[in-house]
Every structure is written in C-alpha cells, then in structure tokens.
Amino acid sequence: MKTLIKIILILAVVSFYSCEEELTELNVNPNGVDPDIVNPNLVLSTIISNTADDYNNRNHGGHFSGVMQYIQKSGWAGSENYFDWVGTQGWGGWYRNLRNANHMYSRAEEMGMEFQMGAALVLRAFNYGYITDTWGDAPYTNALKAIEGEQDYYFPVFDTQETIYRGIINELREANTLLSKSRGEYQGISPSSDLLYGGDPAKWRKLANSLMLRYYMRVSEKLPDFARSGIEEIVGNPATYPIFTSPADDASMAYGGTSLADAWPWNREFDDTGRGYERVQLAAGLRDVLMGYNDPRLGVWFNPVRIPIKVSEEHPGDNIIDGVRHIHPDHLEANNLRVYHPDTWVAYRDAGLHIVDTNRFVGIPLSYHQHDGSTYNLNPSPIQGGSNVHVSALADMYQAGSGPMLLARMISYAEVCFILAEAAQKGWNVGNQQEWYEKGIEASFDTWGVSDQFSAYITEPGVAYDGSLSQIIEQKWIANWTIAHEAWCDWRRTGYPELTFGNYGVRLAIPIRFEYDGNERSRNLRNYQDAASRLQQTPFTAQDGDDSAWSRMWLLQGTGNPY
To answer: Taking the domain 2-40+92-257, which CATH number applies?
Structure first.
C-alpha cells in the first residue's frame, strides 16, 4: 500500500520531446496527481503507514529496543548492543511525514473535511513529539514554510523543547474539538484510507487525548503545575476529553504482508535466508526480570533456546547428549568460563572471563563486548547475523509477514493506565493508583493473549502492588514491548527501570538523545549552533562537545536523571 500511494502522489514531471519542440510544451504524467487537487484520504494512508512503520522499526529491533534491553543483535549491532549512536540518525523522514500532514490539513480545510483535519493534527503532534523527544530543540514554528519565500523560513530557528511540547499539546486540543462530532456529520471519510481506525472519529479523538496524557507526563518534571492541571482536566472531564478505555482503542497498524515493503520487519516470509529474523534476539535484561516474575509474556515474545546448556558432573568435558549440552565444572574452570547471574556477570567480564547461561530462555547482556552477539554463550557456529542455538530467538510468529499480534504500535491503553498510575503516585487527582497500575498490567496481558494468568501474576513478589514509582515504570517498560522509544523516554525521565549493563560500550552510559543530522550543520549552521549551545554536557561528552548523544536536552536539565 505504501508503494502504491507513493506512486500516486508523484508530481507530474516535465520533459522535452526533442530539441526542436517548443519549450512551452509539457509532458505531464497522466498517472500523477496534482498536489493542489489531491484527495486528503490518499495522503492519510501515506502518513499513517510511514509514521507507524518507521516508529516500529526503531522500537522493535533498533536503537531504543537495544539500549532498553528488550533485544540484542547477533550481527551489525553497534547501536543496539554497545551504544554506537555517534552521528547515525537524521530526522528527514519525520519532516517528510510532517510536510504530508501539513498538506493534508490544508487540502482538508479547503474541502471542509474536518475529520481529516483532526487526523492530520494528531499525526503532526505525534511526529513532532518524536522529533523533540529524540533530538531536543528542533524547527517547529518556522518549519516547512520555505515555499512561502521568506528568508527565515529557508533557515528555520530551532524552537525550544518547551515551545514544541506546548505547541503539540495545543494541536491535540484542537484535534479533540475537530473530532468531537458523530461519524455521520463528517464529509468524505474513506474507511480504507484510515489504517488505524477505519475512519472512526471517536477513536481518533481518544488517540488525541491519550497522546496529550503522554506529553503532559513527559514534561512533568520541568513543568509540574502545567502537567498536573492538564492531566487532571482530561481525567476529570471524560465527556469532553475521552481517552483509551480498553486495548481495542490502541493505535496499532496492521501489516498487509503482501511484500517486503508492507510486511513485519525482519520476517522470514520475504527473506529466505532468515538473517534478519535471526539477528534480533532476546536481551538478558528483559529475560532476567520476566523470569524473576514468572511472566508468561516471555514465552509469547521469544522461543526457548534450541539446545539448552547444563553444568553438572554427569558427563566429563563438553558434549551434547540427548539434545542437551553438558559441561563439567572442571571444564568451566579450565576454560575461564562462569555461569551467568544478573549480579555477577559484569564483574566476571571485567576479569576477562566468559559467560555460560544455563537458563531455558537466554538473553545477550547489553554491552557485553564491542562486537556482534554471534559468539555469546558458546555458540558452536558463530556467524555474524546467524542463528545461535544457545540464545533465545524471537517467537515463531515473528517469522511471518503479518499476523494478529504483528502490529506497529504507537500508543496503547496499557500505557495510558500506567501514566495515570504515575499521576496518582504523584498525588494528582486522577483516581486510585493501585487500580490504574493493575489495569495497565491486565491490559498488556489481554493484548498478548495471556489474560487467564493475570490473577496469579498480580500476586507475584515484586509485582504485587507496593505503591512505588519504580514498580509502575518497570511494569510499563515490560508492557511497552515494541514501543521501546517510550520506555527510553521514561527511563531518561525517572531513572527506571534499573538495569545492569557491561563496560564495553562506546561510553560507560546509555545515550540520551540523537545527535543533530549533519545536514543541519552544513545548511543551517547558525541555528544549529544556537540549539547545540543550549544542550548541557555530561561526564560522557568530552569527545563530542555540546551536540552529543550523551548531552542533556532541556527536558532532562536540572532533574538529576538519568545520570
């Protein structure tokens, strides 16, 4: 669908028939659509698919999923496994989404299509939210206006994060109003063009207000009164500000699965080699927490190891017998091997020892070394990007190009519950903290098909409600599987969850932002320098200067988090 829509939206091209022809004659592509007359519904599909797919790619198997210890990679793994974020990402794709959203809004306004106007504002807010969450200050007020011809628009200033967050919250408020009518009162809704909600304005309205909760909580350390009043207003006026009330409201895009372009990333259906699928493997951090809580979601997301390792005196040496790899303790000692434990593995690695993990589910530790993860846990066939019979691969469902659980998730009802649990923990008037906390876990269990095990899980030591912020954020982190960017934002803001990582990263700290794209340095130097100067250096930025992946943006300055 994305490919088809991009073709439809290509502008008419101009060419010459021959050198003798009049220069006034144009060859117009009969299959192109003039952007001045394009139907907003065509643009809606493009923005949704590009936004959701890009977000999912970074969340399921990219930078954020690695450092938040959901996954590690068996090959080509610098950004995920050991913090190699230096100069790796640009924001061009997100601003392309925004150009489309602006054009969709303008065309919808011309045609009196308020539903499409509201959806455009929601998508604008989401894309701008991602940009400022990830880079910091960014072009906003004067962005995407170069066509108007003013000098300031060619070289837009970088607005402060505070300006951007306040701006996108205002846009979401406007969207809430535009989307407040019944479906029959809107013109030109095309259900097939809406890849999230099939043209349901009520669902989009809930999305707008649920995103508002996200961004209010995002600024809660810097603007606590603003955040509190905003969240309390939304929760206290459900008729005016409806929010998600069940997992059925989640903003999730299904994949068509008809080609590589519209299929779940790293699947095997369109990659016979399976290298993409094999690269994405379980991280030890997530495994340790889920196994400690007897969490059934572990088996939904990952497979057990194909050949488990057992350390015992049953057999000498190191041999595979009846599908189990038996290693004698004397062999461990002679070969500088130690059994994995969450509390000791870092010290073992610092001492030059190697780790053997004997669990049924095995994850690669974060920053174990500055190499790919293909050799971890005595892999007998260490090929970069290849399989590892002693490390847990993704569950079989992730080999498919599409499926009922293979969704590009943007925000969930579970997240909304945990936001309100945190708001209650702060003492804000939003309801009962324990109820919101348990509803968040239950929503995640419903989403992943293990709702029958919720009542037992909620009594597990460490899961049973204790009223702490750390518990809320840890469970929110688990529930945000495939929404790793949001977990990363929470970790920066709160310092939770507390996860162990090794000393073999590019720096001895998890990155907290992306560096600005080199295009900004070369094309918009003065405004880039102004924005970079507003960043705050940390003990990990000496090699980089102000514009570092380890510099504090406004959102983190003065908070003491995450370091």
So the answer is: 1.25.40.390
**β-strands 354-356, 337-339: how paired?**
parallel
Stretch (H or E) spanning 411: strand 407-411
- Could you give the CA distance from residue 442 to residue 445 in angstroms, rounded to a whole number? 5
Q: Which two tokens stand for residue 216?
A: 């209010």
End-to-end CA distance of the chain: 43
CATH number of the domain at 407-512, out of 1.10.268.10, 1.20.120.840, 1.10.240.10, 3.30.230.10?
Answer: 1.20.120.840
- Cβ contacts of 537 within 8 Å, gap of 6 or more: 545, 546, 548, 551, 552
Class of residue 31 by CB neighbours under 10 A (exposed 0-12, middle 13-18, buried 19+) = exposed
Eight-state DSSP code of residue 399: G
pTM metric for this prediction: 0.93
pLDDT tens string 293-334: 999 999 999 999 999 999 999 999 999 999 999 999 999 999
Which sequence spans correspond to the domains of the chain?
2-40+92-257, 407-512
H helices of 19-70, where? 40-60, 63-67
Answer whether 2-40+92-257 and 407-512 agree in fold. Answer: no
Q: Are 44 and 52 in contact (CB under 8 A)?
A: no
Q: At what angle do helices 161-178 and 114-134 cross, to 10 degrees?
A: 160
pLDDT tier at 88 (50, 70, 90 boundaries)?
low
Condensed to tens digits (0 to 9), the pLDDT of residues 354-399 reads 999 999 999 999 999 988 899 999 999 999 989 999 999 999 999 9
